[in-house]
Amino acid sequence: MGPPGVHRGLPSTSLTLVLPVDEPIDVSWAEGSSRARRWSVVSGLHAAPAAIRHDGHQSGVQLALTPAGARALLGMPAAALGAALLQLDELDPPGATDRQLRHLPEQLHDTADWSDRLRLVQDALVGAMAQRPAARPRSEVAQALSRLASGQSVAAVAAEVGWSRRHLTTQVSAELGLSPKVYQRVARFQTAHQLLLTLARAGRPSLAEVAADTGYADQAHLTREWVELAGCSPARWLREEFPYVQDSPVAGDDDGADGADHPRRAPKTEGH
Questions:
Q1: Nearest to residue 104, comparing CAs of 16, 15, 18, 37?
Q2: Distance CA 154, CA 158 (A)
Q3: What sequence ranges are listed for the domain HTH araC/xylS-type (predicted)?
Q4: Torsion angle of the four alpha carbons 208, 213, 217, 221, in this order, in degrees rounded to the nearest 10
Q5: In CATH, what is the architecture of 186-241?
Q6: Is residue 50 within 8 Å of 29, Cβ to Cβ?
Q7: In what order do the strands lie in the sheet with 25-29?
Q8: Which of 77, 152, 196, 246 is deepest in the core (most CB within 10 A)?
């Protein structure tokens, strides 16, 4: 993980399930709420960063769950989790999680070989899903989520699925816990984050290129959204995640006063 510090867990269109091994994960929301050391973490969709504190080393398994995957595995829509950080045994109702899945953290901890650990996780996931009836979002909701994530306007998506904007907002919010507009913002941010990550790994980060390619009006718009959703500007995130990148200068690197609680140098890994 690099030097000890705080890693930003960035918003995305996927729910996150983390199963740490050896040591529990120290995680909270960026402002410090809901902080605890947990042996499993399930988080719903969120429009704000999480903070993962580490001593320079972490091991475990992390899964990204689509909204449909959350229904299949946990038996609940993403909205049921809200903006929560929970352990598997804290899911409500208690019967929502398969027994094998609830005991997976301790089983992982007692298993030394990584091949056996991964096989254990796979068996638990398949077993949990096999015990549930097929439960997918309404086809209109699934269609709407796909269109919203691609950048179509809320009005156009509502017209395509044959709903009013109000009904679309109600249905999407009930499925995700986010409104269509917020989900769109998170989806565009995720695309921008992935592109910036790719460019940074190639040693040529360009905020102008990211803004132009991901639908932001300009660099200033991109930076405002990053400050809002990631808790820092993209230039600051680059310095934290890729301190070795020497791009002179990163376009749009005027951080401004984002008011965020800036973490120490973070690991060179992708945040989700």
A1: 18
A2: 6
A3: 138-240
A4: -60
A5: Orthogonal Bundle (1.10)
A6: yes
A7: 5-9, 50-54, 25-29, 36-38
A8: 196
Give start and end residues of each alpha helix (H) in the chain: 67-74, 99-102, 104-109, 114-130, 139-149, 154-161, 165-176, 180-201, 207-213, 219-230, 234-241
d(CA 208, CA 216): 10
Tokens (6 digits) for 143: 């269609």
- Bin 193: left if φ > 0, else alpha if -120 < ψ < 50, else beta: alpha
What are the angstrom distances between the C-alpha of 201 and each of 143, 213, 219, 268? 33, 17, 20, 10
First to last CA, the chain: 15
pLDDT tens sequence across 113-160: 999 999 999 999 998 888 877 677 889 999 999 999 999 999 999 999
- Single-letter code of the amino acid located at 206: S
DSSP string, 152-163: --HHHHHHHHT-
Q: What are phi and psi of 106, to 5 degrees?
A: -70, -35
Can you say how many angstroms the Cα of residue 247 is from the centroid of all Cα atoms in its chain?
Answer: 27
Please tell me what DSSP assigns to residue 250: P
DSSP secondary structure letters along 157-219: HHHHHT--HHHHHHHHHHHHSS-HHHHHHHHHHHHHHHHHHHHHHTT---HHHHHHHTT-SSH
Q: Domain segments of the chain: what residues?
A: 5-130, 139-177, 186-241
- Can you say how many angstroms the Cα of residue 147 is from the centroid of all Cα atoms in its chain? 19
**Four-CA torsion 99, 100, 103, 105, nearest 10 degrees:** -140
For the entire predicted model, the pTM comes to 0.85
